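Help!! Second protein's tokens look totally different from the first
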Amino acid sequence: MSLNEDPTYTELKSLAEKYPENTLLQLKLKYYRPYPPTGISDDDVLYEALKEKYNR
């Protein structure tokens, strides 16, 4: 998926164009990188990270 097909990027771009004076939006647009798609949910990633941190 290219950035132009990413709904988050599209929304961010439209907001940045609507509010060009908002530097935070401009920087978010400039540095936006989507997460690569995985079959793992955010909850699973968090669980594994916490398990690794506290089970040492």
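Here's the second one for comparison:
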Amino acid sequence: MVTLTITKPHGVITLSVYDPEKACSYDLPPIPEMVDGLPMFSQIIEVGSDLMVIGGFDPVSWRVLDSVFIYNFKSMSWRRGADMPGQQRLLFGCSSDSEKMVLVTGGHNDDKNVALRSVLLYDVEKDKWIVLPNMVMERYECKCILTEGNFHVIDGYTTCTRGHHFQQSAELFDFATSQWCIKDNFFPYIM
């Protein structure tokens, strides 16, 4: 289990890992390029023996980052991954297949005024990004899950709804056809 820790007195955000076998937690070393702490609003995801920190804001300059930092639990060290291509994004969805691939979906641009439809797939082993076809709908603050071998992008806001109305749909990416399809009322209990 990975947790965020805010150190005092400076408020620097760091990563801590809980080891259930030893019943203890320990702090990960800071990201070498991020001495002022973890990027704010970054996505943190586990892929195989790696932990990835993707995007976010620089905690000092508030500059939007397209960076990828990868911590390997075997070597106990950080490395820099290839930056996310295309326009910078914030509040995007993120999921992994738990082995070697990471999906980044939607978000909004760095001016925070346009929700995105774009989708990226990152191969951790090859350190390469692949641009996938755009989703049908723009979405930011969406969630991604991998279920039954397919990535689903769930909910999120559009440019027009900006924090007022979550989408009540999901999109499924079909790797065989390289197309997205809408799943309306994915969560019918959401109002």
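Reply: Different proteins will give different token patterns, so don't panic. The mean pLDDT is 86.
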